[in-house]
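Hey, I was hoping to borrow your eyes for a little while. No rush at all, and the record is pasted right below:
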Amino acid sequence: MMNRTRKAFTLLELIVVVVVLGILALVAVPSFTGVINNSRGSVAENTAASIARDANALAAFNTGSNANETSNANIDSAVTEAGLDTADGWSLNDVATGHEITLAKNGASDTYCISVTAGTPDRATVASGTC
């Protein structure tokens, strides 16, 4: 009697592996898409907050009668320094009440409004949505 050694996988074993991989892909892809969308929102919110912090820092270095008062000019400078690139999905809209920055990726977008809030002293603040 000859001993037969197996040197390859059977067709049935290969089909089972392909089916299992397909099921794993069906479960993983929607979860991964959700993570990407959440990260896009976080990037947009953190960028807007960073711009507001930079505008407030610029105001702190002002001299004269408007020292430490954040203005739209400070926000303009902070936006310019942020270097938001339209090729990366960023868009900027200057409106009368502030600046709207939007990050659009993967068919969805997040918009944040950076505006000057009156106070003592006036400060740049960030709010979700349009101005």
Notes: The two ends are 85 Å apart (CA to CA). The first strand starts at residue 90 and ends at 95.
